[in-house]
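Lecture notes, unit on protein representations.

Consider one protein chain, 254 amino acids long.
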Amino acid sequence: MQDGSHHGAADILIPVRNNYPFTRNLLEGIYRYTDYPYHIYILDNASTDETVDVQKIYTRDITVVRNRVNRGWAGAINQGIQLGANPYLVFMSNDLELAHGWLGNMIAFLNTHPRIAAVGPLNSSEHNWQGVGPVREKFVPSMPRFFTEDVHERNRILQYHFHRAGILTEGTLGFFCAVLRRRAVSEAGPLVASWSGADEADYCARLRKAGYVLGLALDTYMVRHDGETPAPAAAGCSRNPRRAVHGKPARLRR
């Protein structure tokens, strides 16, 4: 994918501002554990640390954009949307730990129905509706209980129980990591440039207004280092997340 585009591939958009160790760990995880064609866009919002040297260290399937000013998280995402051309978009924070199959699993669920616009993963937070505990309590009682903290083992367990399965959500999907159809994003329009994090709810509403639904992949789990480099604060914005309040089985008529 020398030109950054590939039929059926995904554009992974990662706004960053400093916090290079997290960006490095995320890139290493993407290169090691991604099982689906992709191109990475690092959207650097005027970093002053080692982030400025990312393009010298990583050269495979990656484009690094150095902004002279901080465009904010949403501004950087909009920039990345314009740069790429692949049919799938990944909005991603740089504070994540990944496991094998993360992207292929989410795209597989996304493609179970053409009306699904975006899919997110489970995460490690117990205070966010996409956390394993809250999902088990409110939506999926059969969600297994973990006796390990290892992100890879947790994913293996989930993939055994929920391979390529998920639920739909009527609430707000977190954009710390979300896979979206480029077609749906084109219909919903760009993100609000003054994005503060709470506007995730606004964008999810816009996707629904365009005729789409949102989903949560039950076989994909990520660790978040929340409070250190949360999205969109990783790009210099504040964060005020909203929780989804409803979920239901993923059954749609074509």
